[in-house]
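Predict both folds.
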Amino acid sequence: MSTPLPLLVLNGPNLNLLGLREPEVYGTQTLDDVRALAEERAAQHGLTVDVRQSNHEGQLIDWIHEARTGHCGVLINPGAYSHTSVAIRDALAAVEVPIVEVHISNVHRREAFRHHSYVSAVADAVIVGAGVDGYALAVEWLARRVRA
């Protein structure tokens, strides 16, 4: 059996500041902690992850396009772009691999502008408010889809 392509784990704007920015909302774990968690959980399923972060919408879109042929699934925390980016939504709609949207905080308990996500409409699953454990849950879900 051949080794599957890696899972693409994308992190949007300001997630490079995890552990520093608003720890009362996002916790104290860093993006490196998220990477380690995703790597560990993927390895339990014989998978690998390709973890990336950008504060730039166009860069995220280019990476989403790469997922069409270079990845077996996409886990995306689009950050604030969830609520503003039709372009990221459209790129994800074209990928044709399983997609999970993850948010560390419960966006539905926050400001009203965070209650709508363009990404949710094209995601196969959405995990909200589970902290960084949401990444592990998303990897689990994607691993089951990839192995099915």
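Second protein follows, with its predicted structure tokens after the sequence.
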Amino acid sequence: MELLPFLNREEFAFLHRQVLGNELLDYLLAAVIFLVGVGLNRLLTRLASRLLFRLTKRYTTGVSEQELHDLLIQPLRTLLYLATTYLSFSVLRYPMPPLAVKGVEPWPKMVLLNLFHLGVIATVVWVVLRLVDFGLLVVARRAELTATTGTRRLDNQFLPFAKDLLKVFIIILGVLVMLGQVFKVNVVGFVGTLGIGGLAVAFAAKESLENLLASFTIFLDQPFGVGDLVTAGNVSGTVEKIGFRSTRLRTAEKSFLTVPNKSMIDKPLDNLSLRTSRRVGFTLLFDQKTTSTQLHAIIAGSVEAIVAHPLVTQDVQMKFNALTPNGKEVTVQYFVETTSYDEYLDTKEDLNYRIVEVVEKEGGVFSNCPVPALAAS
């Protein structure tokens, strides 16, 4: 290799020794190219992400340069490693096999070249997927800054769905490019073949298609959204994600439940987050020694205490409901205006203390006989 004249000196003669069809100088040059590329990898990826951020800065309100860098750093580094490897191997000559045909590239070179093409296509798809993540992150951040509660709820439901849908199309496109460029498949004919067998595929994937259509129904009809507490059949939990095939729920036991979308719309669904208030209902049983005067005072004082609470609606009911051998039954019912379960429990506890204080003040006595409590909501 006649790259530098001084390498032709006698003391560097060993560099011209042939090994597997290449001089040692060729291997040295390939190693230098690879090491320089690896050394510059971090700098070049940082510059690339910084340049991209500056080009899109006016449209990326709410998103930092570091977030873009974190998304792109791994795929860009991989792409640069592939480019460095290709450049380093391009200076080498591949030995011809004994039965090789003249004018035809040796098979080791073709295998490595195809692997390189596969890696580049896969990495480019990876970069595009990360750019989709970044783009939708920008949309989400801008929506948080400008959206109302209703539109924010729609964004939380739509954006993850749109991201997954867009990623599926990008991956399919990447696979088709791989088939056409690397494996020399007639993509148009291949797609036509899929069209012929589409009916069989659709029948085999019947449930998946039903769940996909159900996901569109959930998005358009919006019976629930991310963050809602729902009950569908015997399943209950907080919605964390609505995907193509399934909806992910976080149950009261903190387990992660995956429910097919078809099941979420085929069964009666109760969106507990949309109710305006929570019902409290129970029964108090007083001893037979508690007088009617004491009961009147207990009921009047308890109703006054319940109505005075800022989260309780005005339709409070507390009635002397039944006179039984076990004692005197008084039913209590009121509604707490909150969608927060913790706030509901705090209000219920506070009012239970107030009722007990009224009973103690009026000299009432609870019966020792148990009574079935009214179901609380």
